[in-house]
């Protein structure tokens, strides 16, 4: 079957999107969570199982403790309490741990070891996955079921002092709070004094049930001077004295009320040997957890090592201790020592509640839950428990009762451990099988693209897709069978759940067939290439195609960029790579221009060689062996001498000056938005403009920018779209004025700030109008075959519609980015691409580079935090998912999209024939190259320290980028189709 | 004849490398706490002066291209002055390019300018010595098939390798190793120096290995 190279590339990218999606699904396991939110917590607690006999315990058990004080010390590593430091600096705590009525544990935190996710883990008992960060971009408040919300619902009064993250996570939950900001890391006394100063007052009062204290000082010391600094000792001593104060006060209160209280001392994460945290070293993961209460009996001389438990276990324990239902998505199991002192019936009741909650969570998250060992254990212990209750109610022999009780308890504890383990494995493990299948698909597509370069970039821009060749059909069926067998084997033997195995058999079979078909295609392409290679080696008169400096630069730049993705710093500062590359590109263009301008007279030999090439090349062009040469120089053949000498006077000077103008523009844009990580704090023009003192300047700049945008865009539009464009841009300014970003000259102060829905919709109407006109023109050009100009105008209208939409969505200080983008495109078109006659491949790659650079000029970076979510609300009254997602994606990727659409309109207006197909192919190739390389890199770096903070966001960006590339390629192909038809 | 030429080229290049090494070690005898990283501005000046001096001396001694017929003093002086102006211009030109590449405009002006000077020393000075103040000749040398002697060929190689060294010298700046030499102009300067030295080493070898294929118009 013969396909145009554009169509072929589009198909390839679509398959690649599927592969990347599968990979992403495997890489980001969905977090384990219960479907029931806190709102409808009406379901009654599970009644006590009783085989036959009726039990009267159907309600939640009453709380074990009257008051609970949670003292959370940020960065409290386990050896700060249990190690030599603890003995030295925390004498009271050490006494409690060794001899007092307490239970001490080493609680293991999960990744990422950063405060906010850890607070979530402590309070919900769930493991926040990375994808949560993206999902909760809008709402900082914790919506999941958690202990604090449950406590509030149960009418407990909660007081909080400390890190204000809590206040953001739990708004309106605390009857009294004082949040301290953790912004100034160098301050480690004030932050803690702000917490402690409330303590005396609060401890005397009796009007609260839960007191939460979050001390930040220790973590700050760690950040500043590391865990071995002498300051740590002082801080630990201070914490010890605070603990003593709280404990004595609680004890004295207990003497009056005779109901035990609970004091919890815990850390949220540890501290690495350099003092930081966030990664997965043992020092960062292990935190101290001590539960202190007079309810905990202890025989003298009972020395225990702190047991290793999970951090998530605290939520379930606190819920039981406070008499609350266990948070729905908690994966923790009750810390059993805390209830050891209770009667056996109560113990079993607590264990049962916990097991019921965990098994419910398992049912919701694992499709084949009945096969899980934990679930079977749970069912068995529930049956035993019922028997025990019957015996108990019948008041049987106490010895039998006791033995059976001990057995049930052991069963429950086993079941809990297994359940908790299998649930947390759901989150913690990569789904390697899905990742592998996705990677294989992506790599096969890339190989196919690479192998088909010579054909796809030949002058016909068509290629034979050898899917149905009979020789390979046997291989195809064999591959298909082998892969299906593998699939069955992997899926039946896999321990953890796997997304790809969860798919229906038909879908999985389809994917397998696709993979084997791709493999066959790659194989046949390879075979063909070898055959051609043999044919060519007999044919010695094969001319060596030349590489210009520009081609070398383009190739090396692409390679270098792909290689740089392996280093986390280069990902954080990827904008620098692109700025650097486009600067170098401009200088290379400059060199080319100057050489062409000044060395007209003495470059005779070069021209000769060009002409010679022109004569020889067409014959072996089809079987060209040197892939790269052909890829980069498909049009050299028809190129001939450049047309610089036809330019005269002013134009020539403009050509000479244009690279410098572009370089200056890029430098200006660079100082508009500082992005990345290392230099993000530097002052930039964007911040200066958005500060409220400079509103007038911003207004002038925005107005000017809009005018220039109009001037640059209108020249090739039809009259109607010119008018629409002008009105639309006016609407953009009105919208920005309405939401209070900019000022009208007659409006001195911004009083009434609205959401600007009407203005934004006004602009939306014009955007749609312009896009509609453009589409209409394109359709018309398809019907009236001869008229070529209509198509050009139509494409330009679509482009200008996108520009208008971008102008609406960009924040006003970013409008210059749009202006410069248009300006550079105009200059490049007029003075560089046309006179120098670059071929389609080179122009495509330059467009891609500039598109990438403009992505960062907009202020984007490779972290999720820089996504401008507000763009999703432009013109919408309420949050609507689909339009909001579309608008946000467009606003984020406006740079690449605008450059790509400019590429389409430029190529279809300037060149003819196969250029669009070539461009589409090159675009697909150059976009899929980094994605495929990055997927492999991420797979090999999946246990890297920065996998969650740096590599994962970049992976999401890449996934989004390939999706957008697929859309662009589809557009390309559509244009190419109309081209070939006309 | 060619072999002797290549030998001469090799010796001159070795001398240039020697001058750079001297510029690192000699100041330690005269200046206290001298090291490349800590007092690198001083080192830049010294290195630049050394390399310029050795280039001038070598040019006067070796005389790679046939000296011009006219040799009146005034002509020589104007030529020399012209070269100085060209050198300054190239310094400013490089400075502008560094700023375009993202060097801060206002801060670190001295550092950036010294960096521009040293890059000019590595690239423009040999060029001025060899080709004289002639832009067209420079453009010719730096385009494909434009060289006419092994001297020009070696000039091409050293210059390009200095530029490439500078270019790659900028790449460790974003990395988070937090080393003292990762600051903006230092790593580029070091890259330029390494590139220049590498070019000096490579060019005689490359010319020697390719001496059969190389045919120059004049030779």
Automatic annotation (TrEMBL), chain A:
Segments for region (Disordered): 34-57
Keyword terms of this UniProt record: Endoplasmic reticulum, Glycoprotein, GPI-anchor biosynthesis, Membrane, Transferase, Transmembrane, Transmembrane helix
Alphabetized Pfam families for the sequence: Phosphodiest, PIGO_PIGG
A molecular-function term among this protein's GO annotations: CP2 mannose-ethanolamine phosphotransferase activity
Subcellular location(s) per record: Endoplasmic reticulum membrane
GO biological process, one term: GPI anchor biosynthetic process
Transmembrane intervals: 6-28, 432-453, 465-490, 510-531, 696-713, 725-744, 756-773, 884-908, 920-943, 955-975
Organism (species): Zalophus californianus (California sealion)
Family: Belongs to the PIGG/PIGN/PIGO family. PIGG subfamily.
GO cellular component: endoplasmic reticulum membrane
Protein name as it appears in the record: GPI ethanolamine phosphate transferase 2 isoform X1
Pathway: Glycolipid biosynthesis; glycosylphosphatidylinositol-anchor biosynthesis
Gene: PIGG
Mode of membrane association: Multi-pass membrane protein
Domain of life assignment: Eukaryota
UniProt-listed InterPro entries: Alkaline_phosphatase_core_sf (IPR017850), Phosphodiest/P_Trfase (IPR002591), PIG-G_N (IPR037674), PIGG/GPI7 (IPR039527), PIGG/GPI7_C (IPR045687)
Gene3D superfamilies reported in the protein's UniProt record: Alkaline Phosphatase, subunit A
Occurrences of domain GPI ethanolamine phosphate transferase 2 C-terminal (ranges): 651-958
Database matches in CDD domains: GPI_EPT_2 (cd16024)
UniProtKB/TrEMBL annotation, chain B:
Membrane topology classification: Multi-pass membrane protein
GO biological process: GPI anchor biosynthetic process
Keywords from the UniProt entry: Endoplasmic reticulum, GPI-anchor biosynthesis, Membrane, Transmembrane, Transmembrane helix
Annotated Pfam families: PIG-F
Principal location listed in the UniProt entry: endoplasmic reticulum
Signal peptide: none
Pathway this chain belongs to: Glycolipid biosynthesis; glycosylphosphatidylinositol-anchor biosynthesis
Keyword Endoplasmic reticulum attached: yes
InterPro entries registered for this protein in UniProt: GPI_biosynthesis_protein_Pig-F (IPR009580)
Spans traversing the lipid bilayer: 9-29, 41-62, 83-106, 112-132, 153-170, 190-209
Name of the featured protein: Phosphatidylinositol-glycan biosynthesis class F protein-like
Domain of life assignment: Eukaryota
GO cellular component, one term: endoplasmic reticulum membrane
Cell location: Endoplasmic reticulum membrane
């Amino acid at each position: 079957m013969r396909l145009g190279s554009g169509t072929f590339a589009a198909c390839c990218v679509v398959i690649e999107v599927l592969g990347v999606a599968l990979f992403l699904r495997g890489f980001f396991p969905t977090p384990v969570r219960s479907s029931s939110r806190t709102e409808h917590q009406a379901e009654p607690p599970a009644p006590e199982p009783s085989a036959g006999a009726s039990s009267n315990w159907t309600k939640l058990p009453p709380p074990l403790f009257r008051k609970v004080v949670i003292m959370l010390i940020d960065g409290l590593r386990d050896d700060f309490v249990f190690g030599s430091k603890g003995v030295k600096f925390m004498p009271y705590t050490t006494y409690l741990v060794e001899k007092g009525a307490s239970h001490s544990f080493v609680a293991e935190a999960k990744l990422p070891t950063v405060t906010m996710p850890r607070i979530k883990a402590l309070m919900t008992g769930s493991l926040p996955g990375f994808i949560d960060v993206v999902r909760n971009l809008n709402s900082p408040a914790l919506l999941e079921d958690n202990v604090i919300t449950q406590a509030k619902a149960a009418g407990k009064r909660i007081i909080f002092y400390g890190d204000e993250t809590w206040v953001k996570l739990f708004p309106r939950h605390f009857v009294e709070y004082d949040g301290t900001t953790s912004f100034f890391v160098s301050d480690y006394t004030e932050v803690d004094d702000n917490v402690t100063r409330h303590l005396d007052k609060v401890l005397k009062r009796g009007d609260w049930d839960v007191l939460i204290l979050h001390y930040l000082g220790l973590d700050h010391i760690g950040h500043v001077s590391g865990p071995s600094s002498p300051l740590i000792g002082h801080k630990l001593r201070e914490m010890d004295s605070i603990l003593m104060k709280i404990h004595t006060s609680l004890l004295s209160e207990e003497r009056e009320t005779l109901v035990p209280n609970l004091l919890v001392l815990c850390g949220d994460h540890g501290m690495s040997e350099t003092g930081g945290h966030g990664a997965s070293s043992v020092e960062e993961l292990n935190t101290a957890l001590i539960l202190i209460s007079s309810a905990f009996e202890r025989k003298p001389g009972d020395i225990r090592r702190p047991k290793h438990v999970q951090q998530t276990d605290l939520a379930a324990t606190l819920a039981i201790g406070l008499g609350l239902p266990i948070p729905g998505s908690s994966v923790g199991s009750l810390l059993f020592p805390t209830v050891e002192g209770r009667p056996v019936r109560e113990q079993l009741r607590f264990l049962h509640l916990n097991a019921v909650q965990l098994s419910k969570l398992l049912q919701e998250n694992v499709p084949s839950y009945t096969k899980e060992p934990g679930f079977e254990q749970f069912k068995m212990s529930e049956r035993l428990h019922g028997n025990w209750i019957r015996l108990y109610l019948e008041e049987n022999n106490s010895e039998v009762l006791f033995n059976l009780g001990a057995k049930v308890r052991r069963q429950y504890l086993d079941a809990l451990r297994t359940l908790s383990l299998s649930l947390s494995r759901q989150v913690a493990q990569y789904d390697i099988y899905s990742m592998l299948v996705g990677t294989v698909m992506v790599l096969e597509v890339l190989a196919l693209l690479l192998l088909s370069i010579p054909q796809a970039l030949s002058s016909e821009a068509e290629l034979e897709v050898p899917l149905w060749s009979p020789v390979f059909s046997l291989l195809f069926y064999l591959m298909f069978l082998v892969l299906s067998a593998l699939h069955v084997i992997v899926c039946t033997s896999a321990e953890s759940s796997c997304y790809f195995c969860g798919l229906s058999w038909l879908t999985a079979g389809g994917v397998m067939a696709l993979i084997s078909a791709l493999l066959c295609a790659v194989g046949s392409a390879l075979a063909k290439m070898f055959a051609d290679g043999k044919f060519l080696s007999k044919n010695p008169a094969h001319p060596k195609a030349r590489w210009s400096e520009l081609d070398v630069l383009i190739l090396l730049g692409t390679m270098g960029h792909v290689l740089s993705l392996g280093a986390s710093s280069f990902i954080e500062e990827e904008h620098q790579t692109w700025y650097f590359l486009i600067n170098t590109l401009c200088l290379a263009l400059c060199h080319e221009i100057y050489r062409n301008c000044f060395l007209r007279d003495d470059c005779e030999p070069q021209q000769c060689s060009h002409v010679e090439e022109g004569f020889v090349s067409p014959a072996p062009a089809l079987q060209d062996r040197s892939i790269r040469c052909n890829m980069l120089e498909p049009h050299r053949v028809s190129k001939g001498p450049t047309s610089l000498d036809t330019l005269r006077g002013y134009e020539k000077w403009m050509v000479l000056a244009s690279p410098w103008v572009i370089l200056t523009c890029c430098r200006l844009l660079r100082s508009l938005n500082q992005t990345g990580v290392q230099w993000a704090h530097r002052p930039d023009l964007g911040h200066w403009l958005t500060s409220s003192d400079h509103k007038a300047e911003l207004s002038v700049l925005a107005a000017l920018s809009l005018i220039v945008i109009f001037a640059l865009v209108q020249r090739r539009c039809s009259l109607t779209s010119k008018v629409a464009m002008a009105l639309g841009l006016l609407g953009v300014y009105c919208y920005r004025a309405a939401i209070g970003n900019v000022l009208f000259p007659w409006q001195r102060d911004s009083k009434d700030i609205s959401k600007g829905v009407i203005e934004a919709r006004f602009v939306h109407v014009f955007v749609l109008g312009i896009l509609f006109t453009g589409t209409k023109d394109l359709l018309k050009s398809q019907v009236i075959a001869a008229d070529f100009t209509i198509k050009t105008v139509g494409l330009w209208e679509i482009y200008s519609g996108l520009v208008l939409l971008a102008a609406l969505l960009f924040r006003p200080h970013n409008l210059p980015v749009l202006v410069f983008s248009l300006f550079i495109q105009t200059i490049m078109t007029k003075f560089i691409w046309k006179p120098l006659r670059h071929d389609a491949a080179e122009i495509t790659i330059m467009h891609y580079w500039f598109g990438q650079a403009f992505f960062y000029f907009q202020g984007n970076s490779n972290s999720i935090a820089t996504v401008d979510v507000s763009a999703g609300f432009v013109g919408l009254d309420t949050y609507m998912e689909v339009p909001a997602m579309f608008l946000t994606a467009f606003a984020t990727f406006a740079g690449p999209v605008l450059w790509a659409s400019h590429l389409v309109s430029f190529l279809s207006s300037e060149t003819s024939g196969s250029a669009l197909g070539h461009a589409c192919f090159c675009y697909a190739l150059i976009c899929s190259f980094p994605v495929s390389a990055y997927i492999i890199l991420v797979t090999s770096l999946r246990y890297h320290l920065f996998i969650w903070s740096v590599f994962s966001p970049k992976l999401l960006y890449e996934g989004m980028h390939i999706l957008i590339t697929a859309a662009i390629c589809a557009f390309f192909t559509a244009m190419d189709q109309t081209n070939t038809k006309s | 004849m060619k072999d002797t030429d290549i030998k001469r080229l090799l010796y001159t290049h070795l001398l240039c490398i020697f001058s750079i090494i001297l510029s690192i070690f000699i100041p330690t005898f005269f200046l206290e706490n001298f090291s490349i990283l800590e007092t690198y501005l001083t080192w830049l000046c010294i290195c630049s002066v050394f390399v310029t001096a050795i280039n001038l001396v070598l040019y006067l001694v070796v005389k790679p291209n046939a000296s011009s017929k006219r040799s009146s003093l005034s002509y020589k002086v104007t030529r020399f002055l012209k070269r100085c102006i060209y050198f300054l211009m190239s310094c400013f030109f490089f400075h502008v390019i560094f700023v375009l590449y993202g060097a801060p405009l206002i801060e670190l002006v001295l550092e950036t300018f010294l960096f521009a000077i040293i890059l000019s020393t590595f690239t423009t000075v040999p060029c001025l010595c060899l080709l004289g103040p002639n832009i067209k000749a420079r453009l010719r040398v730096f385009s494909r098939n434009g060289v006419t002697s092994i001297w020009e060929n070696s000039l091409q190689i050293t210059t390009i390798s200095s530029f490439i060294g500078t270019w790659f010298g900028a790449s460790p700046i974003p990395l988070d190793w937090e080393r003292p030499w990762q600051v903006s102009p230092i790593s580029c300067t070091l890259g330029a120096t390494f590139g220049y030295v590498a070019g000096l080493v490579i060019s005689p070898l490359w010319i020697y290995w390719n001496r059969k294929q190389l045919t120059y118009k004049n030779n």
